[in-house]
Design the sequence.
């Protein structure tokens, strides 16, 4: 079912929207209501089945058997299409329609119910949720025309033991089965798990089997939710939606069933997050509460993800857009009392070298008593991208004792972690220690560690160091008429177009490689370019060298931050 909302807004046009739905989504979409008035003067709807007019004024509903005179022609035109669609769902109805040219209201309802259940008709309703216009009509329509579990027939799943197909009829006599579709964190009750029963009967205080986790779960009292109010239920049957508190293992998408007759239903396929932001508690006292609060919100919302990025030392939250993340932060404060700030995540740049060099590292200090002496020669050369780090011991003749070689490596690794140009880790480097010297009294592990670190820093600066940036593979789905603008925008973000593929219904899939640094606000940019009709997904691909002019800006920003801290 489709509900065309916001008809009270400027430039809102129901007939235009209906045509676009039929053209771009499905020609099975059929109007069952027509708006009364338009834009600011929108104040009601005409029911095309009964030809009744419902008007809304100051939260009062008025209905009339009279259709406004200016809408009579439109009502008859759209009602005729509705009658045709209802008649085509059933042979008897079609015969009567062909004979008489019309159907009774009851016959239209029967045809609509069958057509909606079978997917032959997609009804289109309209209103304004903000002004509460025709919302009650929508609820009445859902109540009367939504298909019952019986009309939808058996549901299919897999036997988790044999892998074969299993079916469950919507009947009390079949084994119990249900799918968890929602989880919420209630500050008073704890975790609330919502599930829909597909088959069988479930009673309170029962042990059920979670086929997704292969664990038993003890269900306490069953509840039927009415808004925030909970009504206790003693049992639930096919089609019932019930809630239970404090399940230990179960999460959204899991299947609950009888252990002796297990079945596994495919979990809900949620879209991948498209925007990420770093989150930082405004108060140091909230740091401990933040992690557990975010985890509970992630349990509630499968499209909301949380991770700790150890490379940039930030907590990253990801969601379906900026508004989604702002709402989540608002819930974080309201439900858990944790106030946080959002900021763009740092880009996990890396550094590497392009040249080869040999460099000396010598650390010598005399301060009365025992001194410090460490001396090594290193050879640095680049590794292929993704080679990470390789340390080779080429010392011969014992010029550096074996027990000091690990200290040289430790110094090299520490210097690589701190970076050379802009404080980012140095990667894809091969380091050979091939010469050096030591002092029988003054040499120590610390001295050789410092010598290794000094050599790496000096050598890397002589070996043509560069900054690397992460690059993502991006797949953008857009209407054909926005292709040029989207491709131009991707090119402006330093992207490389890999190819295009038609998807049908006027849509195109664009594949590109784009630096992650350019994608941080892409969900907002794409929505603006495509009038919110484009979508995308991206995943990390590889690292590649940052252009020189951009690298200069990264280095300058690092130096400025360093000076500010000093």
Sequence:
């Amino acid at each position: 079912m489709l509900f065309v909302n916001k008809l009270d807004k400027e430039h809102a046009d129901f007939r235009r929207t209906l045509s676009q739905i039929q053209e771009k989504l499905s020609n099975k979409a059929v109007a069952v209501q027509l708006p009364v008035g338009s834009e600011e003067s929108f104040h009601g709807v005409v029911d095309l089945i009964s030809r009744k007019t419902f008007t809304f004024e100051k939260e009062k509903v008025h209905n009339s058997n009279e259709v406004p005179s200016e809408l009579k022609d439109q009502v008859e035109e759209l009602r005729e299409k509705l009658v045709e669609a209802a008649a085509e769902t059933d042979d008897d109805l079609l015969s009567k329609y062909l004979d008489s040219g019309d159907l009774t209201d009851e016959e239209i309802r029967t045809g609509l119910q069958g057509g909606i259940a079978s997917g032959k008709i997609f009804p289109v309703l309209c209103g304004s949720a903000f002004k509460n216009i025709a919302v009650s009509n929508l609820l009445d329509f859902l109540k009367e025309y939504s298909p019952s579990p019986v009309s939808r027939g058996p549901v299919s799943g897999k036997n988790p033991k044999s892998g074969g197909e299993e079916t469950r009829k919507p009947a009390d006599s079949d084994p119990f089965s249900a799918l968890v579709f929602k989880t919420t964190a209630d500050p008073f009750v704890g975790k609330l798990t919502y599930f829909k029963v597909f088959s069988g009967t479930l009673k309170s205080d029962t042990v059920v089997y979670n086929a997704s986790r292969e664990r038993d779960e003890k269900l306490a009292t069953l509840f039927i939710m009415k808004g925030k109010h909970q009504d206790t239920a003693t049992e639930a049957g096919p089609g019932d939606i019930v809630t239970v508190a404090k399940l230990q293992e179960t999460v959204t998408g899991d299947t609950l069933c009888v252990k002796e007759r297990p079945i596994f239903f495919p979990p809900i396929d949620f879209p991948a997050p498209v925007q990420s932001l770093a989150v930082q508690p405004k108060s140091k006292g909230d740091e401990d509460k933040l992690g557990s609060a975010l985890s509970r919100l992630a349990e509630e919302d499968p499209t909301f993800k949380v991770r700790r990025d150890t490379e940039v030392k930030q907590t990253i939250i990801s969601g379906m857009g900026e508004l989604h993340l702002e709402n989540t932060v608002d819930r974080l404060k309201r439900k858990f009392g944790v106030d946080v700030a959002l900021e763009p995540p740092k880009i996990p740049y890396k550094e590497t070298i392009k040249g080869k060099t040999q460099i000396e590292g010598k650390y010598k200090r005399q301060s009365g008593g025992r001194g410090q002496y460490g001396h090594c020669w290193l050879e640095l050369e680049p590794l292929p991208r993704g080679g990470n780090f390789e340390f080779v011991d080429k010392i011969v003749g014992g010029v550096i004792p074996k027990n000091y070689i690990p200290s040289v490596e430790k110094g090299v690794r520490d210097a690589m972690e701190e970076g050379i140009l802009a404080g980012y880790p140095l990667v894809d480097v091969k380091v050979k220690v091939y010469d050096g010297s030591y002092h029988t009294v003054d040499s120590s592990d610390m001295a050789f560690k410092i010598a290794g670190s000094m050599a790496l820093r000096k050598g890397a600066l002589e070996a043509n160091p560069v900054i690397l940036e992460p690059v993502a593979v991006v797949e953008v789905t857009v209407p054909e008429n926005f292709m040029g603008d989207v491709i131009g925008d991707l090119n402006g973000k330093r992207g490389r177009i890999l190819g295009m593929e038609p998807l049908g219904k006027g849509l195109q899939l664009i594949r590109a490689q784009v630096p992650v640094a350019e994608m941080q606000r892409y969900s907002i940019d794409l929505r603006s370019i495509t009038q919110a009709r484009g979508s995308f997904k991206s995943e990390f691909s590889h690292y590649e060298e940052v252009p020189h002019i951009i690298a200069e800006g990264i280095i300058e920003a690092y130096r400025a931050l360093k000076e500010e801290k000093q």
The chain has five domains: 2-147, 167-257, 275-284+294-343, 351-463, 467-549. The mean pLDDT is 91. The two ends are 62 Å apart (CA to CA).
